[in-house]
Amino acid sequence: MSPLPFGLYIHWPFCLSKCPYCDFNSHVADATIDHDKWLSALLREMEMLGPRVRDAPLGSIFFGGGTPSLMRPENIARLIAGAGNLWPAAAELEVTLEANPTSAEGNKFAAFQEAGVNRLSLGIQALESGALKRLGRRHNVDEALSALAMADRIFARVSFDLIYARQNQSLKSWEKELQRAVALSKGHVSLYQLTVEPRTPFFEAQSGGRLKLPGPGLSRDFYDLTQEICNRAGLPAYEISNHAGAGHESRHNLGYWRGQDYLGLGPGAHSRLRGHALVNEPNPQRWLKLVEARGHSLVSDTPLSPLERAQEFLLMGLRLTEGLDLPRLAECSGYRIAPPVIQELEDDGLVALKPADAALISGPKRLVVTRRGRPVLNTLIHILAASLRKNPS
What we know:
Elements: E1 6-12, E2 14-15, E3 27-28, H1 35-49, E4 58-65, H2 73-86, E5 89-99, H3 103-106, H4 109-115, E6 119-125, H5 129-134, H6 141-154, E7 157-164, H7 171-184, E8 188-193, H8 201-207, H9 216-232, E9 237-239, E10 242-244, H10 251-257, E11 262-265, E12 270-273, E13 276-280, H11 284-294, E14 298-303, H12 306-317, E15 324-325, H13 326-333, E16 335-337, H14 339-347, E17 351-354, E18 366-369, H15 377-386, E19 388-390
């Protein structure tokens, strides 16, 4: 059997400013960044770790951050070419770059496309001016709309992010904002309920009573409204927070959720390769020194036990609307979910067993979380993970 395609993630850790909700490994950039030195280090780490996946085709490249649209387009081109020299590309290689919709970055879109990027992900986050300010964004609504229009002209595939269930946001205002968004979408939107993470300014504000977000009941109403509007617009959820028309799904992210291998380069990047969990040094300057000294920045390289692989596969796969591939769960880990637990949850209408392809394959092959079960997905994952058992030998 041919190996599945793997995904390559390249992390650019720098931003022009840090958003108050963000807990990603991102750092405010300054004028001292040596772009050529960073390019050399990323290429060297790619070449050093490349042999660990040399026998697999490259299915996707994802430039994330941070703000990778601050990178030089010619360096993006060099990294794409470097990957092409190391691995054979799968058919229709997807190359995504995250970008902010400021005018300065928008002016680089054509150069990014010429460099080899064929999918752009725009961090719009809101289509309301006051919300953008409260979220710490550097662009305004007009800039966002201009950048989106420019991206649609240049790239074959474009996605953008929005954050909802914000402080003081009403269901009516979100309905209006989301309807505007789906009318602008050319096939993919990522819609995230605002969550407050530790060690962020929003966490401090919430702890001090200065930030109040919707409670569980209203949050559920926001979620249900989001699904209703997106379904009507032909943008159903294919994952908890991601909506797309047929053929517009993010292939790179699908690889994560389907349990395929991925290689992460750059500060703090994670990898899953041949049953190993790899973690890079998160601090940008220490990362750079380590790569210059030894060719990589790994701070841990841990073999995952069969049970850990099963738990991780379950955690990721149940996020997908297509559901969890049960035969592959057994194949990659040697574990299965206890049938009585599946039956009980199915009787409650929270999960369903479906064939992998109703037209070709009979019998249940996928475990799907139903619409009723989606709002309690975390609880379902806990129950199902606790029921994992080794396959009979």
